[in-house]
Amino acid sequence: MLVNLAEVRHAVESDAIVPCFQPVVDLRSVRLVGFEVLTRWRHPTLGLILPKNFIQLTEELGIIGILTRQILRKAFRSAAMLPGRLTLAVNVSPIQLRFRSLPTQIREAAEVAGLPLERLIIEITESAILDNEELALTIARELKEMGCHLALDDFGTGYASLRHLLALPFDQLKVDRSFIQQMTLRPESRKIVSAVVGLGKSLGLTTLAEGVETAEQEAMLLQVGCILAQGWLYGRPLAMDQIPSMLAAPPRAILPQLPALMRKRALEAG
Ligand code: C2E
Ligand code: CA
Ligand code: CA
Fold this sequence. Notes:
The chain is α/β, with parallel strands linked by helices.
């Protein structure tokens, strides 16, 4: 996709970049537990543009800070109107993690919106940590002290996952989509997912499977004891005005269709 820097700058300055919300479900009950904020650019002629086409450009332009502020403000304001049990996960890019002011920015945006910080999950990728491990740790600790939760995003795709897992006080492991999509095709991927879920459990972390698209993947995830999931099977990222109807018709009730023994095992494992 070809968009130029001037257009990106204009989009940020004119508030054309908006948050969308993708459901996260608890696999054991298929209950909605929260949303991940995924940013979209509402382009006047090209329609909705995905973040890979503009986030990096906003970093190059030095306006990622402005974009972050806008996204946090809009997403938090919307989330504050949702039922209080629902969490809200936000993505933080490597550049954003270089700003010592990130925790303050998050706290202020949450206060203005009236959103309790305990409902927030901050998603960090390993590349963000690699950039400056010491600063990442300082920021991560501050976020935790404020009451936020931390997730390690795209787990399994980085260089030194295990070390980073121990270095920062994570609460959640997000297993990368590539493993989930290979799971039903390659026994090795299934074993990796199973091992990651086991690792998460033994470290006291919740595991979340990303990119779940089929009931077959879901059944397998339940079998290996994965707790949370996200993906097209449960819903695509939605604009805020679509959320009320989604809440009225929550994600599919899959569990009753699963064999009783598998369901029992999954519930026991959790
Ligand atoms: P991510 O954090 O790993 O987000 C998950 C991506 O997978 C999203 O792509 C989502 O739309 C997509 N996805 C979710 N379920 C499925 C599925 O079942 N199948 C498939 N094929 N894809 C699925 P998206 O929205 O294009 O975002 C891409 C990346 O852009 C995100 O990856 C995240 O790293 C980054 N991003 C998104 N929003 C923000 C933001 O507000 N700030 C920053 N810094 N980065 C963002
Ligand atoms: Ca993410
Ligand atoms: Ca991810």
